[in-house]
Amino acid sequence: MAKSWEATAIAASVPRRNPVVLETTHPEANSSTKWLRLNNSSATTDEPSSGATKLRRMLFETNELIVCPGVYDGLSARTALELGFSGLYMTGAGTTASRLGQPDLAIAQLHEMRENAEMIANLDPFGPPLIADMDTGYGGPIMAARTVEQYIRAGVAGAHLEDQVLQKRCGHLSGKKVVSQEEYNARIRAAHAARVRMRSDFVLIARTDALQQYGYDECIARMKMARDEGADVGLIEGFTSKEQAAQAVKDLAPWPLLLNAVENGKSPTITVDEARAMGFRIMIFSFATLAPAYLAIKETLMRLKTQGVVGTPKNVTPVTLFEVCGLKHSMAVDMNAGGASFKEGV
Ligand SMILES: C[C@](O)(C(=O)O)[C@H](CC(=O)O)C(=O)O
Tens of pLDDT along 307-316? Predict the structure, then answer.
């Protein structure tokens, strides 16, 4: 019998106009809990689909590498949308830093993460799908399930769930500890069951941080178990070499893998072209906007402190920034509704 992730992949490869009703092979799927893959059943090319369905199709109907810059707030997300990436990634580290001014140490909890993800996912709800960090699931299986449910309702297309202890830390710090494989399986099982209950195409990404503590073979074993419990994609955090990253793709093929590219972290820098050649299917760049934002802000504030001016380039006006954030759309909404607020422009 096909594993549940294989059933999912098969479902997603069915031509869109052929109605299909698929049942999971997951142990939870008894006659009263049959999983109807409604999202795949009748969508036509011009029907808007959820971010989850879009992401699942990109994963299982194409071979493309889905490149997702890490975003952490409305402006960074709007900037990524402006440039037309095929997906976005909401970084937990960036969310914690920007919303709470704190390091990536399990300080942001479900509420903050969900709220940020919902805002970002709905800036362009029919645009590129949003993958979000869901850390450890913020508790036991009940909280992992609750996180998946809330993320689905928020419009998040997929999220990664890891095996670190609840008092987790950024995957590119030393001293990480992971829970037992059994405990991690329960998290994955709960998350998968939640998405089945929600009848959603939400993409569940299993992440292991076991490399530091237990080594490569343990990571592969954990990923295989997570896959068999219904995870759709795997993520091994903190590869120590390019060869190891390439090997993981081979060892887990044809299961799709996500690569977390953190420059100056624990892993070597791997480019998009290299990751594509290795066979990764999703690539996230956690610090793609947070690190440059810090540098730009600091440089500008130094100028203010030393020269008494901010020194913004002439072509960056308040209107420019508001346009990045959808000014024209808001004005059109008002005018199309017969509103008069913008008759004289802005
Ligand atoms: C992917 C990650 O979970 C994130 O929050 O973006 C972090 C990134 C980081 O802090 O280096 C992680 O890798 O743990």
Answer: 999 999 999 9
Q: Where are the domains of the chain?
A: 50-293, 310-336
- Nearest ligand 1 atom to alpha carbon 237: 13
Q: Is the ipTM of this complex over 0.85?
A: yes
Global pTM? Answer: 0.88
Active site residue 30: no
Q: Is residue 133 among the annotated active site residues?
A: yes
Q: Is the CB of 229 under 6 A from ligand 1?
A: no
Q: Is the CATH number 3.20.20.60 carried by domain 50-293?
A: yes
Instruction: Report CA(330)–ligand 1 centroid distance (Å).
Output: 34
Ligand 1 center–CA 169 separation, angstroms:
9
Which string of b and e fits 244-271 if b means at least 16 CB within 10 Å? bbbebbebbeebbbbbbbbeebbbeebe
